[in-house]
Amino acid sequence: MTVLFNDYAGEDRTRLVDEVKNIGGTSMHQIKVQISDKTGHSQKLLNPAETVEIIQGNSSGSWVYVDGTMVTPGQVDEASLSSAENVRIVSPLVGGQ
User: Fold this and answer.
1) What is the pLDDT of residues 17-50, one digit of tens each?
2) Overall fold of domain 2-90
3) C or N: which end of the chain has fewer Cβ atoms within 10 Å?
């Protein structure tokens, strides 16, 4: 698992690129996962199984987007992520009163 953080205040920046890792002769599909909350966000490159774990573990009230489309966290499985490139998990927005 690769965890990459962006430091917007400094000059050092980490850029993520789509990546396929070759492990034991088998190519593993990697998904760029961004988890956002009130303190900022973190980005990870994960395989589909790890991505499902992250979605299930962080989806309590959160919004989940797979390649820009909002999905129900309970309906996400490895098969549905087989061709996904990006997943975003964000805290829901609350409107003013």
Assistant:
1) 445 555 555 557 899 999 998 888 899 999 999 9
2) Ubiquitin-like (UB roll) (3.10.20)
3) C
Q: Are 88 and 46 in contact (CB under 8 A)?
A: no
> Tokens 């900022």, residue?
40
CB-count exposure of residue 15 (10 Å: 0-12, 13-18, 19+): exposed
**Cβ atoms of 59 and 45 closer than 8 Å:** no
The model's pTM is 0.68
